[in-house]
Write a structure and sequence with these properties.
Elements lengths: L27 H4 L5 H28 L9 H30 L1
Helix pairs in contact: 2-3
Length: about 100
């Protein structure tokens, strides 16, 4: 053996090199991380937020059941429909975030 050169690790009886994980797959350590303080607090508060949003959607939808609701002008009805759509979108986002935090 030439001076200054070490024998390969496998030839010396050491461990062999492990193949690198595929580039598209996250490492197990990266996939499983601990939830931070802010995320834990957010997860604790989400059920109350979801309940409030569900109540808001129910109230707005219930107001539409009143026969006098459609006696109002068109702009008010459109604004009411937009408020329901906004509340429903927030509710959907809250459920998605809750699911995301629960899976971590």
């Amino acid at each position: 053996r030439p001076q200054g050169r070490a024998a390969p690790l496998a030839a010396r009886g050491g461990a062999t090199a492990r193949p690198a994980p595929a580039s598209g797959e996250p490492s197990p350590a990266a996939a499983r991380r601990k939830r931070g303080y802010k995320e834990t607090r957010e997860l604790e508060q989400l059920p109350l937020r979801i309940e409030a949003l569900e109540q808001q959607v129910a109230t707005l939808t219930g107001q539409m059941a009143d026969p006098a609701f459609y006696q109002r002008d068109g702009a008010a009805i459109t604004a009411h429909h937009q408020a329901i759509a906004t509340a429903q979108a927030e509710l959907d986002a809250a459920y998605a975030r809750w699911s995301e935090l629960e899976s971590d």
